[in-house]
Amino acid sequence: MPKPPGRWNLARLQRITTSSHRYIAEVDGLRFIAIFSVLLFHVHFAATNIPGTTLAASPLNFLFWPVTNGYRGVELFFVISGFILGLPFAAHYLADAPAVKIGKFYLRRLTRLEPPYILALLLFYGAAVVLHDIHAQDPNFFSGLLLRLGYAHSIVRGLPPKLDGVTWTLEVEVQFYLLVPLLAKIFKLTTAPRRLILVAAICGAPLLASIVPHSELTLPGFIQYFLIGFLLADLHTTSAGAGKISAQLYDGLATVGLLALALVPDTTTWRQFFPWLLALVFIGALRGNWFTAVLRRPVIATLGGMCYSLYLLHYPLFSFIAARIITSDMTMPMACLRLGLVGLPVAVGAGIAYYILIERPCMNPNWPQLAYQNARRLCGSIFKQK
Questions:
Q1: What is residue 56's three-state secondary structure?
Q2: Does the structure show a pLDDT above 50 at 298?
Q3: Which domain holds residue 286?
Q4: Other C-beta atoms within 10 Å of 255: how many?
Q5: How far is Cα 296 from Cα 24, in angstroms, rounded to an integer?
């Protein structure tokens, strides 16, 4: 039955994809897991890293252990990027889909991602100047902005940026984007060599990271996660293994992956397994039963589709609020709960508004032409009135 007139439809906020890409709701569901893992992690981080504030001890600190592993949502984002960007190349080489037009590929990245990123940086830098924030006193404040606009801050300075520092991960993403057409040549190989090379590269990536300077901030330190995405794009395109395992077993594998990622410590040994644990979660999302159904729920998938806006805005808001509502007489659990109750609604609300007003319009591939036409009409009407 059609929805009653006037009833709000979440599909109005669904991310806009190009005609050559089928919308995969469960992938946006995975984005939901990734972004809210990061949000909870940064609630804890912002609450416990306020200059001049030392929180009181509490026997309940151990309960926040899973939250402290929430940064692994960033690695899930890298897997998603590898999958989404690898998918059209895999479809071309493995399923006779149309070839990817490289110029259009890069133009899409530019028009889709740059405007929200640039505007967010300018807003936060302007706010820092107006509020006389400590970051604005740094002599490298404005030169850092120029480096960040070119996605070169971590490479040039070997340090993450300070103001809205979480955007260092976007620099890693851009480094991967630049290499995607070259790396995607792997899909031209036959099945066995292609998958063996991908598995070997994923397993050998930590060795590369150990010899490359500042790899913890650049692509060599995270290439294995993007390549897991490539491997998943391969399996998805060729339907490898589909139907051989029950959907309920895929649900179980995804659950094991999620629990392990939330609970295991960040040691050198365990980090070898993180890409594969994320692969379990991802393939469970694509082929599971109840897990897939949950990720496809409109509120989950829609909020997941807003992850870029939420990611761009959340941490400066958390830091600003935390400095004003948290004091040294609080325990860590109390500080986190207070910031969560106040900061999460503010950050999520701001992210939703930014998505609606800024990011989602930029998802339309034709927005530059539409903006130009609207500007011409506006100028024409102004001059006509004169």
A1: strand
A2: yes
A3: 22-375
A4: 16
A5: 9
| 386 belongs to a structural domain | no
Per-residue pLDDT tens digits for 165-181: 999 999 999 999 999 99
Average pLDDT for the chain: 91
Asked if 116 and 308 count as a contact pair (C-beta separation under 8 A), the reply is yes
**How far is 155 from 175, CA to CA, in rounded Å?**
10
Tokens of 17: 């994809």
**What's the chain's Rg over C-alpha atoms?**
22
Residue 10 domain-assigned (yes or no): no
Residue 195 CA: distances (Å) to CA of 60, 205, 217, 223, 259:
45, 15, 27, 16, 27
Q: Is 115 part of a structural domain of the chain?
A: yes
* Other Cβ atoms closer than 10 A to 195: 17
Q: What is the pTM of this model?
A: 0.93
Residues ≥6 apart with Cβ < 8 Å to 309: 116, 351, 352, 354, 355, 358, 359
Does residue 384 form part of some domain?
no
Total number of domains constituting the chain: 1
- What pLDDT, on the 0 to 100 scale, is given for residue 43? 97
Of 8, 33, 1, 28, nearest to 363 by C-alpha is 28
Virtual torsion, Cα 38, 109, 276, 34, nearest 10 deg: 20
What confidence score (pLDDT) does residue 2 get?
A: 46
